[in-house]
Description:
2 strands
Amino acid sequence: MTAPLSPWFLLLLAVPVLLLGEFVLRRVPVLARFNIPVPVVGGLLFSLLCLLVQLAGWGTVSFGSKVSEGWWTWLVTPDTEWLSRPAKNLNLPLLIGFFTCVGLGAPLRTLLGGGRMLVVLLVGTTVLAALQNAAGVAVASAIGAPALLGVACGSLTLVGGHGTALGFAPRFEQAGLESAAAIGASAATFGLVAGALLSGPLGAWLLRGRAVQSPAAGDTARTSVASFLGDARALAALGRSALLHGLLIAFCIKAGAWVSFGLDKAGLALPAYMGALLLGFIIRAIHDAAGWRWLDGSVIGRWAAVLLPLFLAVTLASLNLADLAKVAGPMLLILLVNIALTLLFAALVIWPLLGRDHEAGVGTAGLAGYGIGSTATAVAAMDAITRQRGPAPRATTIVPPTGGFLIDLTNAPVISAFIRGLS
């Protein structure tokens, strides 16, 4: 088998992959109309190209995922751990940087005023987590698979994602599910792809026939396609302000690594970005409560618009679709049932409860995104919709903390209850 290529090639390829996605979306307007994000198109096309090379017998194109170079891992690692030069996922600084922007960019007054949308999304996703697990257990039992596999292919990996899957893996193995970490990683990756492909189209379908929210939005498919280079140039044009906000983001990432370290020591199975996300929330809350004006949400938004596509491009371009094809049999059946369940739940329950308007459509797409894949794919789907149809400030402010933080507080007890009930 051909040795994996260096992970650093993924960083070099990230921008070309994004440009590929932009090119395809502009040449195939139907994809833009269905609000499939640029990095999803580019990343999956690149992964498909690598698969075709393998199927043609020209070799295996795969990439390593972890790096141990201290200059790259220092920011996301507590120093006591960093001294041993641990290997970390290449995309981890990009992921944590994005979620730091989520925290810093969420005005406290907007979160406190989240009201009905916040309650519907949080309670709704908690109910969805229980439904995913119940459906997973039912399907697993019906086909003679271990019942715990139903939970592993339920809210553990769909609502929870990679971080929750790996965090709970030891408990699943103790309960009797062998290779829980590998199962969780495969199921979460499958969910990531499904969420990236389906959440945007769901929002587009729900909002079909409704007028766009601003005269400039939705005029053409071309205007709805994000431009990574355009966002990067806009960030660079901010000059000193972009630099100062970038330093604040870096501070939150580093300090957040220590917060996450403390949470891990306390036995909390939370994603790696949780510390930086919480710190970002705290800093923004103090800033707003004190009446300060130095933290500019638009600059934070520019940073997020650069970090999120880079993270998704690196993540999706590195997928080995041949490995995903091996997610067969019981796992695949459970995942497909739960993905269909999630989409139906979003369309038939969440969409009506949120009010069936523009904000509701964007928020429902966001829930589908993190209910199947991840908060990052949810934000990418919402961004694709709002670029085409106009802004949805409540949804784009409330969905990220709900999917990135609050749901972890309720999903973990749901998972634990099912493990206890099945052990």
